[in-house]
Write a structure and sequence with these properties.
single chain, 167 residues, Thiol Ester Dehydrase, Chain A, binds coenzyme A, Cytosol_ACT
Length: 167
């Protein structure tokens, strides 16, 4: 991926500019014999949509360094349409926190249920595969400011846990 070849400072961007959603149909191969979709299948889509947001924001390659607060609140079944909504909450230097919400729709009844949530941390990489600055976040709304403040607290907690687990 060609990224910022002249190393120009990247323009601040609002969370709205990089937000993304992905819609996928769940098939029998995604589920156990009772028809419950595997958590790992949902995680794969969470990682993918969060990666779109991170790369859109950073305008560079970006890789997953952590996933946390993954909650499967309600089951997703074969035949459901799974919609994943993702937005960026917080940027430090190269690291970015992306929040993903999963919603399952029963196509026949039209009923939509929030089935899961997760936070995914990505790191922006330069063309040599080294961490590089991501653009700052342009906080336009009260929600943007609140999510940024909450994201900062969670990131500090992650870094404390990272230090502990690498001992
Ligand atoms: C991404 C990678 C190059 C970073 O290397 P590193 O030696 O950890 O680099 P640093 O210690 O300088 O950390 C870089 C940034 O990542 C953040 N970071 C690293 N691990 C983290 C974690 N577990 N949780 C949150 N942030 C983390 C650091 O805080 C730092 O953020 P900042 O630049 O905003 O201050 C390296 O960890 C890597 O290659 N990981 C594998 C990624 C991968 O293959 N993912 C799965 C497939 S996409």
């Amino acid at each position: 991926m060609q990224n910022n070849p002249k190393n120009l400072p990247k323009k601040e961007k609002s969370p709205e500019e990089s937000s993304a959603h992905v819609i996928v149909r769940m098939f029998p191969s995604d589920a156990n014999p009772a028809g419950n979709v595997f958590g790992g299948e949902i995680l794969k889509h969470i990682d993918m949509v969060a990666g779109i947001v991170a790369q859109r924001h950073a305008q560079s390659n970006a890789v997953t360094v952590s996933m946390d607060s993954v909650n499967f609140i309600k089951p997703v079944f074969v035949g459901n349409v799974l919609k994943l909504n993702a937005r960026i909450n917080y940027v430090h230097n190269s690291s970015m926190e992306i929040e993903v919400k999963a919603e399952a729709e029963d196509i026949v009844t039209g009923i939509k249920t929030i089935t899961g949530t997760a936070f995914v941390t990505f790191v922006a990489l330069d063309k040599n595969g080294k961490p590089t600055h991501a653009p700052k976040l342009l906080l336009k709304t009260d929600e943007d400011r609140q999510k940024f403040a909450e994201g900062k607290i969670r990131m500090e907690e992650r870094l404390k846990n990272r230090k502990k687990s690498s001992k």
